[in-house]
Amino acid sequence: MSALTQDKVIIAFKALGQKLINPTDILGDAFYSAQNGNSWFTPENVEKSLLSFAEMLNPADIDIWFSKMTFTVLPKKVGLILAGNIPMVGFHDVLCVLATGNIALIKLSSSDDKLIKIVIAELINIEPLLSDRIQYVERLKDFDAVIATGSNNSSRYFDFYFSKVPNIIRKNRNSVAVLDGSETQEEIGLLGNDIFDYFGLGCRNVSKVYLPKNYDIASLYEGIEIFLPVINHFKYQNNYDYNKSIYLVNGAKHFDNGFLLLKEDDSMASPLAVLYYEEYETIDEVNGKLKSLEDHIQCVVSKLDLDIATFPFGESQHPKLWDYADNVNTIHFLGSICNKEVH
């Protein structure tokens, strides 16, 4: 009887990457009907997500990624509690478990309980031996380790319930951008993707921007004008209208271009349709703040040479296979539970 090997998984991942280039071919009617179950999952956002995974699963990056991991011959059962804030957001965890030869016990989010199943079914169609490594569960039990993604509130429950097994517990994180005023309108336009992709619902979406003193706010708004259609989504508009009314009633100083509110605030997590900003005097000041907030930041977008790793403008929602959530190396974690050395 044939056994699942790392080479077979590599071949399957590469084939899936090629298929994801045409999302409608894989998803069929679900490509358009996903928004019936979750109105944020528009066809545009579903396509954006699958194309991002197609980009991630390119042959060269797959070869690099697999060259740095061990494929276990003694699979462990890894419980996965997936988020559902943007389409397919938990799929990378599934890939990590399968890439290391382990068994994924998948607890899907009720907000995203169809798309991942369809894509995994396509992966199993490519490599049928993977069917033994995937189980869908309503409640986790008989697991050797857990990777759980949720809110700050749910993480307290996860910490308690899964404390006796190896775990990765993810909490709320936000992403930020740092500008110095020399950015071109094209670069600001790319930053717009970091802000508005998936309506800003992802932890990799920029929710706050650091601006130099006396920065021209108009130049920021001019650069993101192309994202005006975001206001046509009724839920986004509801959030915009609500936050705008709160600021007006409270007399809170803010800027407004008709689809994005800009408000000065020390906080990291801005409400939907709001971008917080904070002014700075020197880059050293920004570096100090980013360092102090490192445990709350998912990624930093900037063209500047900062003391923290950065993504280019427009790339926050285009992670590589090795861009792990919360900067916790999932492959190292899975290698450790299998008592295998991970290089």
Q: Strands of the biggest beta sheet: in what spatial order?
A: 8-9-10-7-6-11
* Named CATH topology of the largest domain: Aldehyde Dehydrogenase, Chain A, domain 1
Order of helices and strands: HHHHHEHEHEEHEEHEHHEEEHEH
Tell me what the CATH architecture of the largest domain is: 3-Layer(aba) Sandwich
Sum up the overall morphology in one term: globular
Mean pLDDT: 94
Structure in words:
The protein is of the alpha/beta class. The protein has two domains: 6-172 and 321-337, Aldehyde Dehydrogenase, Chain A, domain 1; 174-301, Aldehyde Dehydrogenase, Chain A, domain 2. It has helices at 6-19, 23-27, 30-37, 43-56, 59-66, 91-99, 115-126, 152-161, 185-196, 217-223, 234-250, 283-292, 330-337, and strands at 77-81, 103-107, 134-136, 145-149, 167-170, 174-178, 206-212, 255-256, 261-264, 274-280, 297-301. The protein has a six-stranded mixed β-sheet with strand order 8-9-10-7-6-11, with helices on both faces. The radius of gyration is 21 Å and the shape is globular.
In short:
The protein has helices at 6-19, 23-27, 30-37, 43-56, 59-66, 91-99, 115-126, 152-161, 185-196, 217-223, 234-250, 283-292, 330-337, and strands spanning 77-81, 103-107, 134-136, 145-149, 167-170, 174-178, 206-212, 255-256, 261-264, 274-280, 297-301. By secondary structure, the protein is of the alpha/beta class. The strands form two sheets. A six-stranded mixed β-sheet has the order 8-9-10-7-6-11, sandwiched between helices.
